[in-house]
Design brief:
about 260 residues
């Protein structure tokens, strides 16, 4: 039975590389014209208003969630109440940013690169697990970018992590006596085999679809107290100057948020 006003579970999702432009204002027409790369977004470009465009890019986030119960921050474009959310670290790239989110503090002198190494500092995920004396399966991190598996924990094995090209193996531990249903286990095996056969044009990455599916299967079976999901395809397509696929993967990320909520 849930207690009123008490948070029982937390799901934390990041979508790497997404600009505030596409969150709050909609399509960047100049980038679309220059770097659309074959993805037809004319139905979005045809809308003149920011509210209409952003709802087509984020149909669930803006079309339902924020209209009914959600809260949004960081809209520096708001004409009356502009607000800005900023990182504290001076490096402003991946590993330092994720570590700041996961530990609550920037450590610029120690964390200054994207090297795929274990986080030297305890993370909030490890803290929660220790404080609540949880089984590792009750605090889990799934991510598309491989180094996040190491950013998310100071001591390897403190929590369940799965990132990059890692196979997801629910049999790695007893998961506190909870076992995955056979039908879901077969789905995991299928995803693992498909991931192994999939060529990804990014370094230390997998497609977000694998990350999302693995995370949903873990959530369904083990109902963790804390689940982190790090999507990263948006950042990769942005680096590849493919604005059309950047927008398309934002829409897929929005679908994932909808699936999580419903």
């Amino acid at each position: 039975m849930e207690r009123p006003g008490v948070v029982e579970n937390v799901i934390f999702v990041t979508i790497d590389g997404v600009r505030t432009q596409e969150v709050f204002l909609g399509l960047d027409k100049e980038l679309y014209d220059d770097l659309g790369n074959g993805v037809n977004l004319d139905h979005i470009a045809a809308e003149s208003g920011a509210a209409e465009q952003r709802e087509l890019i984020w149909p669930w986030l803006w079309g339902k969630f924020l209209k009914e119960e959600g809260v949004v921050a960081g809209n520096r474009f708001h004409p009356i109440r502009p607000n800005v959310a900023k990182v504290a670290n001076m490096h402003r790239f991946s590993y330092p940013g994720y570590s700041e989110m996961f530990t609550g503090k920037a450590e610029d002198d120690v964390i200054s690169s994207n090297a795929n190494v274990q986080n030297p500092f305890k993370t909030v995920f490890e803290f929660i697990r220790e404080q609540l004396q949880l089984h590792p399966s009750q605090v889990a991190a799934f991510a598309s970018w491989a180094p996040i598996a190491k950013v998310a924990e100071h001591r390897k094995g403190s929590i369940v992590t799965n990132a990059g090209q890692d196979k997801y193996d629910p049999a790695d531990s007893d998961h506190g006596g909870v076992r995955m249903r056979e039908t879901d286990r077969i789905r995991v095996d299928t995803l693992n085999a498909l991931q192994e056969r999939t060529t990804v044009p990014f370094e230390l990455m997998r497609y977000d679809s694998f990350t999302a599916e693995y995370a949903m299967l873990h959530l369904k079976t083990y109902k963790p107290k804390v689940l982190y999901v790090g999507l990263g395809e948006t950042d990769e397509w942005a680096h590849h100057n493919d604005y059309g696929l950047y927008i398309k993967t934002i829409q897929l990320a929005d679908n994932f948020l909808r699936d999580l909520w419903t």
